Amino acid sequence: MKKSIVLFAIGFTTLTASAQKMKEADVPPAVKAAFTKAYPNSKAGGWEKENGNFEAEFDLNKVEMSVLIDPNGTITETESEIKVSELSKTITDYCAKNYPGKKIAEASKIVDAKGVITFEAEINKNDVLFSADGAFIKESKD
After folding, report:
1. Domain 20-71 class in CATH
2. Can you name the residues that pair with 136 across neighbouring β-strands?
3. Which of 32, 34, 87, 98 could form a disulfide with 91 if both were Cys (CB 3.0 to 4.6 A apart)?
């Protein structure tokens, strides 16, 4: 029993180390100001600290979104949930071949600060990233 608890604690710590939920009061003013300026009609539903940056989750026109903002208030990335059917055939074919019997649970379109677009397919609690043309980039734990 003790071994299970220790393993659970280690696993939980590992999963939460890269993204930590936080209170809005702990988000720097420059980050909150950048969010409000970019999305004046939206309210952050939650904040996380991710690799030194701050991520706000929110809804925009009934679409689940998130935005990553650095401590200086610069938006570095936006992520919009899309329908799985909006992923290209190249991406869905790759997923079918490399994750047989697994279903894409969610899909997202990611745009970085330079306008580079990538797509994300969540499969079996893993995030699988693809370039705009559908080429596999990497897989990471959700």
Report:
1. alpha beta
2. 130
3. 87
> Does the pLDDT value for residue 19 go beyond 80?
no
Arithmetic mean of pLDDT, 114-135: 97
H or E element, residue 86: none
Nearest to 108 by CA among 94, 121, 92: 121
Beta-carbon contacts of 100 under 8 Å, excluding residues fewer than 6 positions away, are none
**Sequence-separated (6 or more) residues with CB below 8 Å from residue 74:** 34, 113
Q: What is the DSSP secondary structure assignment for residue 5, as one 8-state letter?
A: H
What is the pTM assigned to this prediction? 0.81
**Assigned CATH for 83-142:** 3.40.1420.30
Cβ 134 vs Cβ 94: under 8 Å = yes
Cβ proximity of 78 and 64 under 8 Å: no
Q: Domain boundaries in the chain?
A: 20-71, 83-142
| Closest among 66, 39, 37 to 50, alpha carbons compared | 66
